[in-house]
């Protein structure tokens, strides 16, 4: 393995790790609290996901808000 291959493998992991540890902004927290108040944060039954067609965008939003609200506590 060359040095370039090692660097190419490490840099994306470091960048993604930095994203995972960034705290949510107050706007994100407020938006998620509003979503929770309006419709709850439960993931709905998704036939597209069951058929390997990807996840429903609303379910992804609900999952992301659950994570944000856990971090904000």
Automatic annotation (TrEMBL):
Keywords: Signal. Residues 1-27 form the signal peptide. It comes from the Bacteria. This is Hydroxylase. It comes from Rhizorhabdus dicambivorans.
């Amino acid at each position: 393995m060359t040095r370039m291959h090692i660097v190419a493998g490490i840099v994306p992991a470091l960048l993604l790790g930095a994203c995972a540890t960034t705290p949510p902004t107050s706007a994100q927290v407020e938006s998620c609290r509003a979503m929770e108040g309006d419709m709850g944060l439960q993931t709905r039954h998704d036939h597209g996901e069951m058929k390997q067609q990807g996840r429903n965008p609303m379910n992804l939003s609900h999952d992301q808000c659950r994570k944000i609200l856990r971090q904000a506590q």
